[in-house]
Amino acid sequence: MKRSAVIAVFLLFFFTADLSAGPYSLRQQDDSWTSFDKWQHFSFSFMLTVQTGYALSHDTWVRTEPDKRTLMYSAGFSLSLGVLKEIYDVRKKPKGIFSWKDLLYDAGGTVCGILILKAVAP
């Protein structure tokens, strides 16, 4: 599938999700951009990305520069846990919502973690 098609499908889903009612709606009353929960999402994703990338870039006690595969694995692992946490919130909490804002903070922490991994590479 071409990159432009993937972007188009993502944008279509993103903008039509706002029209739906319920826990997956983008317009959520109790979901502030500045809540403490957002900081937790950012910092957890950041630390998980850095730790996973650090662990994957060590081979028998020899530090190597993280390659693309290492960065993709650590980012994918971090983001997938963020999505799973939001799915858990919807299913297990009484008034659980799927917070798109939480996912944006997860993505921000992941990007910052990748930048740190690239910055400290030998």
Strand segment count: 2
Q: How much of the sequence is in beta strands?
A: under 5%
What does the largest sheet look like? 2 strands, antiparallel
Average pLDDT number: 77
Number of helices: 4
Total domains, how many?
A: 1
**What is the spatial order of strands in the main beta sheet?**
1-2
Features:
single chain; 122 residues; mainly alpha; two-stranded antiparallel sheet; 4 helices
Q: What this model shows, in words?
A:
The chain has 122 residues and is mainly α. It has one domain. It has 4 helices and 2 strands, in the order ααββαα. Strands 1-2 form a two-stranded antiparallel ribbon. The chain is elongated and about 50 Å long.
List strands and helices in order, with pairings:
Elements (H helix, E strand, L loop, with lengths): L2 H15 L18 H21 L1 E2 L2 E2 L4 H25 L7 H20 L3
Antiparallel strand pairs: 1-2
Concise overview:
The protein is mostly helical. The protein has helices at 3-17, 36-56, 68-92, 100-119, and strands at 58-59, 62-63. It has a two-stranded antiparallel sheet with strand order 1-2.
